[in-house]
Amino acid sequence: MDIYEYLTAHEDRFVQELKELLRLPSVSAQSEHAADVAHCAEWLKAHLTGLGFAVDIHPTAGHPVVLASRRNRPDKPTVLVYGHYDVQPVDPLELWESGPFEPTIRGEHLYARGATDDKGQLFTHLKAAEAWLATAGELPVNLIILLEGEEEVGSDNLGPFLSEHAEELKADYCVISDTSQFAPGVPGITYGLRGILCFELHLRGARSDLHSGGYGGVAPNPLHAAVELLAGMRDARGVVTIPGFYDDVRPLEAWERRQWAALPFDPLAYREELDVPALAGEEGYTVLERLWARPTLEINGLAGGYAGEGFKTVLPAEAVAKVSMRLVPDQDPRLLAEMFINYVERHLPRGVRCRVSSKHAGKPILVPVDSPGMQAARRAIARGFGTEPVLMREGGSIPIVNTFREVLGLDCLLLGWGQQSDRAHAPNERLALKDFHAGTRSAAALLGALAEVAPQAAND
Amino acid sequence: MDIYEYLTAHEDRFVQELKELLRLPSVSAQSEHAADVAHCAEWLKAHLTGLGFAVDIHPTAGHPVVLASRRNRPDKPTVLVYGHYDVQPVDPLELWESGPFEPTIRGEHLYARGATDDKGQLFTHLKAAEAWLATAGELPVNLIILLEGEEEVGSDNLGPFLSEHAEELKADYCVISDTSQFAPGVPGITYGLRGILCFELHLRGARSDLHSGGYGGVAPNPLHAAVELLAGMRDARGVVTIPGFYDDVRPLEAWERRQWAALPFDPLAYREELDVPALAGEEGYTVLERLWARPTLEINGLAGGYAGEGFKTVLPAEAVAKVSMRLVPDQDPRLLAEMFINYVERHLPRGVRCRVSSKHAGKPILVPVDSPGMQAARRAIARGFGTEPVLMREGGSIPIVNTFREVLGLDCLLLGWGQQSDRAHAPNERLALKDFHAGTRSAAALLGALAEVAPQAAND
After folding, report:
1. Is residue A232 within 8 angstroms of chain B, CB to CB?
2. Nearest residue on chain B to A224, judged by CA atoms?
3. Distance from CA of A180 to the nearest CA of B (A)
4. pTM of the predicted model as reported, rounded to 2 decimal places
5. Contacts of A270 in chain B (CB under 8 A)
6. Which residues, 6 or more positions from B312, have their beta carbon under 8 angstroms from its beta carbon?
7. In Å, how far is B361's CA from the nearest CA of chain A?
8. Do A200 and B313 touch, CB atoms closer than 8 A?
9. For A334-348, how does the pLDDT look when each residue is reduced to its tens digit (9 = 90+)?
């Protein structure tokens, strides 16, 4: 029996095991679930031990890290697989058609909290290892499996953990299955992520709220200052006006524009799905280009005065605005923060004071698409899904990818088996069973493909 | 003993009686004080009956109206004095230096909730009547005293009450002491009020909140639409850009500009009091001109996305903005509402939908400054305060003034005895004892001065 026959033969059992894992309510954000998170770590330790891994549970300041390894191939590369076993809270519970921790198959999908994010995806790598051990007697590479319990609450303790265990975690490749395919039937490899940079602005007018009758037309209104300041940051074509903003943006390469234009993407259906009369954004770029390769400036929150029921004729003393940028290669968050703060200082309407602070920042990511690891991943996905993967980017930021880059010096292979439409973080989260099985086949093929690459060629 | 000697001789007793009235916590906004409001109406009925008035308490759908009258001068004009005996809530209680309902004299002021707004001011008219009756044996005019218990909650039942009792309330003059002097030592008559027009805008983007990574740069952001739309409504010189906005604004007359420029007003001290680096507003007009005679457009509330502690990288599905205009003669709220709604429709950024509704509206007020009633009021204040009053306007709106105009056809004489700095609606509300006594003398002089004007000349 070859490895793919083994995987096919055991599909039903794998789903039963995954259901067991999904029944554990490992919600990291809610302290009443702390014991459930710990229990989930124990379940994984037992399961990995059963497969033949050396496994430790490492306590952290938050939830524990499960670290498993099997290193019997000194001549072969070492692969580090990252996943997270914690899940998002389930509210609003009343919108779930079946219990979030009662995994249920309806049609082609398995429904449960964590089905796609990330238990269902991480579990494919465990089953891939099982299949190698069962059919070949040994893994084709040295394999480290690192399972975090705090991804949904910011991975605060992951950086320190990686630093402390840097020697133990030394690897040639890092693999993360926590993204999505491009679309159903169109698997993809994510080779770029936007960075992020967040700002908070506190605008202050008079020493206290004022009556708009007694003071309107004379007292500075921090809400007006806020709208003038923020409106000025983008022009009518959706272009950010902050001087220097686009200076370090790497232009799209010809092959990227060509390949993306060929992707099965329908802007009209996308717009209808959002239920908006028109899409927004920078002129001169397609939707995917705007999402994946162009930087943005967006207001994420704005508050001041009275916006509740009824009316208060108040000139508020203060207003708060939250603004974030999505950055693309090669924009540097430190430089962008300076540009933003300079802009605010120069364009602040008279009469108000403004305190601006930059909050968390993450660099954009772009990895070479022709590295040996990427080539191995393409072959593996073609084998697992039966079709060549597309090269895609993502508009969001994945902070842990930066952490792996900065602490361990590893570029991650971002191989997502799920779909954008799988409702991660939302009610009725799900994973298509065929994506689960294709992902498992791909994960198995990946270990074989990476074994064929000389370790010294891996990260250069 | 003449009437002014009488007033001087009884100053201390008047203050004691006012303290009794101020001890009654007639907070109209709070249902737990409903019995206190009713009790206050009873106190006033008893007091007015003791003075020699015919008094009725009229229930309304809300708090009662106290209506007192004494009509023994068929040959003389009828004067309607309006006041309100309800008061604002007292929160935040901890900022009061003495209990809000424990009237306390410190220095030159009497401190209590309602001291200036409006119990202390309305009470001057009761004591003026007392002095006439005690010294002349009769009032010099027919006097109606109308005391409302719902001014602080919007006077919802006043209009219907005036309509139902229009015949009984027929008068030649209407007097309200619920405004302020221009400044300490500078009494004034308010001859103009700005109108008001309020709008609520609901801007809607996608069908739900979106992740700013996954959708930023493509999905319409209703917060950006709001800031663009609102920022465009005023230009850099503080001028409102809505077409037609200034069309019906009556230019200031030469005497107004001259007299206002001569008022003891220090823009620097005003700015320092507000604690702002600069004042705002329309270029080309002085502070008082901007406050009293120029229309405004101000944002009173704005909310969307997440503006609390921390950061949420959300593209909100909706945003709410509250906007109000202060209108000046001869702007018509109905026309201005159309202009605003047209502007929003024409300038709404693409990709968002906007629902705009106009909320309550009040017309601006401007009364002739040379009418017989105004001339009588000037003489009365000069007698009571020992100095000529200035002619002033106010930036705010007083809805009941419109109600008297519309229902009874009466222009009001707005004669305020208190100060802007008396902290109406705020902790440590107060009234200077000398303003109380000067106000009482003025109220007494006013009855005499109005008696000298032929009734037929009163309202034309």
Report:
1. yes
2. B299
3. 12
4. 0.88
5. 218
6. A300, A301, A322, B305, B306
7. 12
8. no
9. 999 999 999 999 999
